[in-house]
Amino acid sequence: xxxxxxxxxxxxxxxxxxxxxxxxxxxxxxxxxxxxxxxxxxxxxxxxxxxxxxxxxxxxxxxxxxxxxxxxxxxxxxxxxxxxxxxxxxxxxxxxxxxxxxxxxxxxxxxxxxxxxxxxxxxxxxxxxxxxxxxxxxxxxxxxxxxxxxxxxxxxxxxxxxxxxxxxxxxxxxxxxxxxxxxxxxxxxxxxxxxxxxxxxxxxxxxxxxxxxxxxxxxxxxxxxxxxxxxxxxxxxxxxxxxxxxxxxxxxxxxxxxxxxxxxxxxxxxxxxxxxxxxxxxxxxxxxxxxxxxxxxxxxxxxxxxxxxxxxxxxxxxxxxxxxxxxxxxxxxxxxxxxxxxxxxxxxxxxxxxxxxxxxxxxxxxxxxxxxxxxxxxxxxxxxxxxxxxxxxxxxxxxxxxxxxxxxxxxxxxxxxxxxxxxxxxxxxxxxxxxxxxxxxxxxxxxxxxxxxxxxxxxxxxxxxxxxxxxxxxxxxxxxx
Length: 481
Description:
Helices cover 85% and strands 0% of the residues. The protein is mostly helical.
């Protein structure tokens, strides 16, 4: 069977995402059992501060450079202008970091301050090659380097942890992975440094502004809760919270891939005045996001305490209540993510930024108010409230430009199948208990198989779509026929 380039790229992207997700889950389980929540929490805090100061160091110019270079003219000039701006912003971000030294005790007390400086420097250099490769259309190389970055990072982290390096091993592996990705991208980078003009800088500035603002809002959702938990509570609490959050990520697994596929198509349909196709695609996107989200949320609520215990260790059981709330966050996140994606695709980035900014401010305020009162459960409530608001506001804006609707019958079928699955898992738990990891694995397997058997028996449309996807990949369908 011949696969066209778009299908091939989508399948490569999805396969890479699956591999990285599995590797990420397995490595986190290992680190959780060996290192415990406190060291993991310090590492998550390091990643949060790196993300924030790297955003300051990028200033939206990375996305602006990709846009300008992808247009095909004066590529070396835009590349050179980006490098200069990135270096200047690196100086700014490091300066701010030094000024913040007395206030970031969760980083300074764990000895990670200088590691953070080193990571920002290497990350800046890596961004030259990463953005250069991506902007010139070498998406395959970009994906390979990203994959190897993650794999090498985890290999180094596992070896270092086994040898007893603990936190330094985790951070060192993160930096080594970036260097590995940098070396691969440099090998295929064809852009060169040359003279540029003020006009090139102005062109980058005009596009980077909204990218930076939108990225800032996303960064608040990604890291505000982590940093504020570290400020009000302890590194161990950060570790427990982030592990619970990572576990719930399985509920929104397909949403990122749908963003990758839908964004350029909806953008094209909007440009050609074919909004009906965009509306249908968005509705289908909701369906296939909920296809995985509903059973994962239901299964997580029924089995959450045992999942944390067996997968990560007894020290993480205290995150069970937060886990339940964060599972609901992932459902709200589906609507927020796809709707803001559509706002950007139909040329309304300002509205996307407005709703994200409002929700981000609410997120910070709720975290500050609730974490001291309810601990990591308060952080989960803050995240649920702010992302739900983001989803509601983005719906209100988007519904003015296009019809936003659910596919009622498929969603009803997904809901019914989820209820059957949940009842079966509850009965299994009462009948056999979850005293061993094998019992837990059996409950998950029975629930998953029953869910898809029921769903495929009552919804032929979803069954045919899955059949088509599996046939394209080359996986035999007979097992589910």
